[in-house]
From TrEMBL:
Domain of life: Bacteria
Pfam family, one: TrmI-like_N
UniProt domain tRNA (adenine(58)-N(1))-methyltransferase catalytic subunit TRM61 C-terminal: residue ranges: 84-251
UniProt entry keywords in alphabetical sequence: Methyltransferase, S-adenosyl-L-methionine, Transferase, tRNA processing
CDD domains, per the entry: AdoMet_MTases (cd02440)
Bias type Basic and acidic residues, positions: 10-29, 337-349
PROSITE patterns: SAM_TRM61 (PS51620)
Xref: Gene3D superfamilies: 3.10.330.20, Vaccinia Virus protein VP39
Residues of the signal peptide: none
Name by which UniProt lists this protein: tRNA (Adenine-N1)-methyltransferase
Keyword S-adenosyl-L-methionine: yes
Region (Disordered): 1-29, 326-349
Amino acid sequence: MSSSTIPHGADQRRGPLRPGERVQLTDEKGRMNTITLTPGGAFHTHRGFLPHDDLIGAPEGCVVTNTIGHKYQALRPLLSDFVLSMPRGAAVVYPKDAGQIVTMADIFPGARVVEAGVGSGALSISLLRAVGDGGYLHSYERREEFADIARGNVETFFGGPHPAWSVSIGDFQDEVVKKEQPGSVDHVVLDMLAPWECLDAVATVLAPGGVWINYVATVTQLSRTAEAIRADGRFTEPASWESMVRGWHVEGLAVRPDHRMVAHTGFLLTARRLAEGVTGLTPKRRPSKTEFAAEDGQAWAGDAGAWNAEGIGERLVSDKKLRRAAKDAASTVQRGAFKDTPEAGQRPE
């Protein structure tokens, strides 16, 4: 396969370990650390140090020994590892949900996809992998700081700008109808507070049969989005679900569920665009319709009188933290990898 036909970023996933790459070190107790390979550098702990030169040029999956005999296995981090340890300003879409979005929205190589908001870029990376170099992903983000963080993380993961990706700043419902032709988009992916506000915009750009998938955090958002789609009539009956992942401890006869699990992270809701001028079928059996008055939308928003992150219980992110995360994301692009840092969810030695 010639270099021109290799999918973007694929060459970074093969071959011996190289300077500037991220490497995940796992010791005999399962503790993980992610380091950046630097000629002449070393990974230090209170149990000795490991020269980076022992890893540079070695095959992926090797086992190396530090200065006092402590052993590590070395592997390139998976996408799920990257997402949970990369610089972030907003909460990321967890790998379990990103996988569901790619599969349940039927996102295929070469697809035309739009998403909002981009957050820290975690979902964007999964979408870019799915559409491939010949696809199209246009991400819309209201805050420039989040867009900067996402650009840094995407470029770090793929080793540079992805040819299928572009980012626009502004409100999705206003910008998408300016930049996309009517009926030209295969999939719309929304990770935002009030997706029901985008009904007209989504119906305009989404092709007949195209999939609209929403990622929301609370049951109030889920209910209001579903009822708005039903009332609109231009989409199929919405389907809603959540996924939960529970690991298992398997060691000899000691086989049991883990004490901790990744439970609720968000709800997913999908619907498909019907042909122009067609009204969707109403299911014969369904719960009585819930009407939403203006005050219903304000009930969870405090004094602001509108749906916002604070109103639904999300943590607010300070401008200082966003600037720091954007700086960290940009620096990883320049260095080609992460600085030495404990893996997400793990304690450093």
